[in-house]
Amino acid sequence: MKIVGISGSIVGSKTKTALSLLWEEMVKAYPDAEHVLLDLAEYEVQFSDGRNYLDYPGDTGYVTEQIMQADILFIGTPIFQASIPGTLKNVFDLLPTQALRDKVAGIIVTAGSAKHFLVAEQQLKPILSYMKAHLVPTYVFVEEKDFMNGKIINDDVHLRLQRLIEDAFDLAEAQAGIRAKKEAAYDF
Asked: Which residues form the NADPH-dependent FMN reductase-like domain (predicted)?
């Protein structure tokens, strides 16, 4: 099973901190899975121009191919101006319409205040659903007050990240069983 994490911004550190904590817990819980963490700040991703994702060279091609090969995606995003960052939206624009079919997606959101908790519901979840991802129903929302000195200090956030991991893996396993049952129904 291949797990890909996306830290969806090229600025700031809180989303990367939250995703890194999730990553530590996941590697401990599922050491045999293939883990790839993509921090968009470390890549030069081109703007989408309508080409097939396989036609993009360099970092853009690498990022899109990793996402397309994933079984589970963990998408971390900050909230800027009551929206997801353009860098993350661009990554989705680079992919085919049904790129996330049969993939499970879990969401981690960092924001300056609780006022932005619905951004994932109103913007990110619809994009992921449109692209045919199986969404973990609950996401982890981390506020400014949950951080201190570059670390997450709220124990409840730690527990919610662990639960997100468990739910994502359970959903992926259930979806794999459903696909296997459907494929077994065909007699060829």
From this structure: 1-143
